[in-house]
TrEMBL record, chain B:
ABC transmembrane type-2 domain segment(s): 63-292
Lineage: Bacteria, Bacillati, Actinomycetota, Actinomycetes, Kitasatosporales
Keywords associated with the record: Cell inner membrane, Cell membrane, Membrane, Transmembrane, Transmembrane helix, Transport
Lineage top rank: taxon: Bacteria
Pfam families according to UniProt: ABC2_membrane
GO biological-process terms attached to the record: lipopolysaccharide transport
Topology of the protein relative to the lipid bilayer: Multi-pass membrane protein
Transmembrane regions listed in the UniProt entry: 66-86, 98-116, 152-169, 175-196, 270-289
Any single Gene Ontology cellular-component annotation: plasma membrane
Keyword Transferase: no
GO molecular function: ABC-type transporter activity
Assigned protein family: Belongs to the ABC-2 integral membrane protein family.
Protein name as it appears in the record: Transport permease protein
Cellular localization per UniProt: Cell inner membrane; Cell membrane
Amino acid sequence: MADISLDKPEAGDRIPTVIADDVHIVYRVNGGSRGKGSATAALSRIMRRGGGESRGVRKVHAVRGVTFTAYRGEAIGLIGSNGSGKSTLLRAIAGLLPAEKGRVYTDGQPSLLGVNAALMNDLTGERNVILGGLAMGMSREEVKERYQEIVDFSGINEKGDFITLPMRTYSSGMAARLRFSIAAAKNHDVLMIDEALATGDQKFRVRSEERIRELRKEAGTVFLVSHSNKSIRDTCDRVLWLEKGELLMDGPTEEVLRAYEKESGK
Amino acid sequence: MTGATPSLGDGPVPAELAARYGLSVSGARPGLATYTRLLWGRRHFIVAFSTAKLTAQYSQAKLGQVWQVATPLLNACVYYLVFGILLGTRRGIPHDVFVPFLVTGVFIFTFTQSSVTAGVRAISGNLGLVRALHFPRAALPVSIAIQQLQQLLYSMVILVATALVFGSYPSPRWVLVVPVLAIQFTFNVGITMVMARLGSKTPDLAQLTPFVMRTWMYASGVMYSIPVMLQGKPDWIKIALQHNPLAIYMDLMRYALIRGYGAENLPAHVWLFALAWALLLGVAGYIYFWKAEEQYGRG
């Protein structure tokens, strides 16, 4: 991906950064089978079916044949009701969830914004900053360099020396601020943001929205999952509307949002 | 508004378009060499992650990190009470050898045992992490093995103290502790990777492994001497039990630390077998784990 302009076939062409080609994603859920959840029920189920694919395993077809191409410089919103497959699709684009069928092609490594999973409540905020930074793929030096920046941004230490306390002692707002600050410390090629980002009090919300704008400027392509039509309108120039895992509509923000609002009865 | 295949209708097919702009398949498994390089690049994360897990384990306890040493000590006491005093499995071993013999056995066995039991949940217990961040997934089993190694190093404090109390003073043989631990650690990394892959597909293994490990423990001579206890039994049973990797690692560690446990207690070709087991599991386990790299997010 060193110099794309060289092998650009037609001048003035848009450069694709993410191509989704008929992507299907299926989750397999153990113990989610119908009927009673007791041990005898589970046993008799195994006896009855005796082998085959679905021995107490239920399949959830979360994304069904989504195809689209995203280009450099685009900010794309993903909308749809709860459980429509938006977050799942993002994970597939990031290469974190294997597609059952179809393929996702990307330029560079798309990253989800968020490190929640790597952090541990029993550790101090300080160690979580380091752990989170390393988990996102920063080098030790990079983490050291940005440490103060992250702590200052989170504002955790504004009310005393909280950063040296275990994270489980933080209020939910404080913890959310620290998590966001760690996650937003790194720049990404293809950035994906999964809703509910603006957390914390008013002051922090303003600050985090500003940081997201910065990240967006530096990233090639941005995906944003959100239930707030306002933040989609503010951020995105193109919107994908997913419903029941299928791509219902793909087009300019205003057009898709208007249809979506009409459908959802707003 | 029902058009399900938008925007690409007139363009080239996606695969061609991707090829033309040099896009690669997202989430594809890298080659073994690249994979190893990526894994090495994540070494600081791996160490930080295992240290964090280890610290978090006792962070709510009042005594805190004292438990890192107190837990193995209590374990050793329980085993001594049951096997040394009540059951008397020390047949054929003098008393001042038996206590360090038993403690070494328990700690060395636990080193692998907890790697296996934790390894089953290496992927399935960290699915949130696997589904949120990019890193070679082998980082998870490796960090579990390192976590157990750190735990063992705490236990070594007790082990050395026990050896000293029962009259085994530092000798040049103590240097062997380092290669023995290195070999067993390699073995553990391999077996942890195997368990991690198996456990990611079949979480039920977490229920099953304790039984397998307990059988393995009783068969490996943790609290008794295999040659003494199996006298009169066919030779092949004795040889098979003595050459199982854990019996070998325990014997080597005892040989290194305990004065009264000489080379006559070791089976033939013991170092060769120790290395062979470690290399076999280490290499095969790594490749086996890597083969499913792109699948782990599915859970």
